[in-house]
């Protein structure tokens, strides 16, 4: 899913690489350096464009788990223009759907 959304941002939305950043969330007992390298490989984004990795237990999961050895990652796009473009697309879809009824 991460690769797919990044492909959408890069190819369809023409987002410049400098605007894409990543934030990794991982349990504190896991290796955050390996996780950062893993997500850098998956996203094709250099570690210099990563926010500081969050190492903690989420409210949703108070138990230590081994199911996500590389944690999860959030993709951030710093672009008001992109937000407004996508918002416009969504509004267009909703208005065209209303007209079909």
Task: Outline the secondary-structure elements.
Layout: H1 2-12, E1 20-26, H2 32-43, E2 54-55, E3 72-77, H3 80-100
Parallel strand pairs: 1-2
Antiparallel strand pairs: 1-3
Instruction: Output the radius of gyration.
Output: 17 Å
Number of strands: 3
Spatial ordering of strands, largest sheet: 2-1-3
* Helical content class: 40-55%
- Any idea what the shape is? globular
Strand content: 5-15%
Mean pLDDT, to the nearest integer, reads: 90
Total number of distinct structural domains:
1
Coarse structural class? alpha+beta
How do the SSEs run, as a string of H and E? Answer: HEHEEH
**Distance between the first and last residues' Cα:** 32 Å
Uncertain stretches: none
Largest sheet: 3 strands, mixed
Q: Helical segment tally?
A: 3
Any overview of this molecule?
With 101 residues, this protein is α+β, with helices and mostly antiparallel strands. It has one domain. The chain is built from three helices and three strands, in the order αβαββα. The chain has helices at residues 2-12, 32-43, 80-100; strands spanning 20-26, 54-55, 72-77. It has a three-stranded mixed beta sheet with strand order 2-1-3, covered by helices on one side. The longest helix has 21 residues, at 80-100. It is globular and about 55 Å long. The mean pLDDT is 90.
In short:
With 101 residues, this protein is α+β, with helices and mostly antiparallel strands. The protein is 44% helix and 15% strand.
Features:
alpha+beta, three-stranded mixed beta sheet, globular, 3 strands, 101 residues, 3 helices, 15% strand
């Amino acid at each position: 899913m991460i690769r797919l959304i990044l492909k959408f941002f890069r190819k369809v939305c023409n987002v410049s690489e400098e605007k894409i950043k990543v934030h990794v969330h991982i349990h504190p007992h896991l290796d955050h350096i390996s996780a950062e390298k893993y997500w850098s490989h998956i996203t094709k984004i250099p570690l210099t464009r990563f926010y500081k990795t969050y190492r903690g237990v989420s409210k949703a999961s108070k138990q230590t788990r081994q199911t996500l050895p590389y944690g999860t990652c959030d993709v951030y796009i710093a672009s008001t223009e992109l937000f407004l473009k996508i918002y416009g697309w969504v509004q267009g879809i909703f208005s065209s759907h209303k007209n079909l009824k």
